[in-house]
Amino acid sequence: MTSTSFEATSTVLADCAVIKLRGDIDGGAREALAAVYDDSGPTGPLRLDFEEVAYINSTGIALIVELLSRARADQRPVAGAGLSEHYREIFQITRLTDFMTILAQRPAPADRQIEHE
What we know:
Elements: E1 7-12, E2 17-25, H1 30-39, E3 46-56, H2 58-73, E4 78-81, H3 85-93, E5 101-102, E6 114-116
Parallel strand pairs: 2-3, 3-4, 4-5
Antiparallel strand pairs: 1-2, 1-6
């Protein structure tokens, strides 16, 4: 299996911060996930956009758990969008859905966004 490098950016909207995830979420995503969480602002809801995520392994699931743990400690509600049916099922099996809401729709249009990289 060919690995797709991981990238993440945060966008602050009026009602939440959107973290756009791209590529494979595996052990190589640790630093980028921590940094993008820090860039998403100190407070307010988070929306994780998984639309361009190619693959998530067990280490990637653990990294998402770490991010959810940080958000919970900071009292920031988290929602996920753009998950494939396969990953929706994985998130239910691993009970990640107990700690984040899964949305059917994608994040807001780009014309309402301010990019932070």
